[in-house]
Amino acid sequence: MNSKVFLVLRILLGLFVLVFGLNKFIGFIPDFPLEGDALAYFGALTNSKTMTLVAIVEIVAGLALITNKFGALLAIILMSVSVNAVLFHATLDPANSAGAIALLVLNIAVLIGYKDKYKALLN
């Protein structure tokens, strides 16, 4: 992958997750309305403090990707957040799935950009 394209994708993903991670603490982006099972599931995640952990992972991953320190490691860890976001929206809130899909696509692109870092793991 072209190094300039990778740089842009890495910083975009870093800003994306940093903003959404900070939003979970500060709340500067309005929440989208949830109903039924989606509301119950999201409420359980919030009450169990799972969303706090997700926010911390997003903030740390965002900073790591922006600064390119441990970015390859945090891109792998962030993949679990990306997949879960897509699954949540695909099954419980399909109308609002665009952001989660964008997150997953960016995450996969960054993982491809870091592929040389993973060669030792995959041997």
Task: Walk me through what this model shows.
With 123 residues, this protein is mainly α. It has one domain. It is built from six helices and no strands. It has helices spanning 3-26, 36-47, 50-67, 71-92, 98-113, 119-122. The longest helix has 24 residues, at 3-26. It is elongated. It starts with a helix and ends with a helix. 21% of the residues are buried.
Q: What are the main properties of this structure?
A:
123 residues; mainly alpha; 0% strand; elongated
Mean pLDDT: 94
Count of individual beta strands: 0
Number of helices: 6
Instruction: Estimate the helix proportion, in percent.
Output: over 70%
The outline comes out as elongated
What proportion of the residues form beta strands (DSSP E)?
A: under 5%
What is the count of structural domains?
A: 1
| Secondary structural class | mainly alpha
The end-to-end span amounts to 21 Å
Q: Could you give a quick summary of the protein structure above?
A:
The chain has 123 residues and is mostly helical. 78% of the residues lie in helices and 0% in strands.
SSE order and pairing:
Blueprint (H helix, E strand, L loop, with lengths): L2 H24 L9 H12 L2 H18 L3 H22 L5 H16 L5 H4 L1
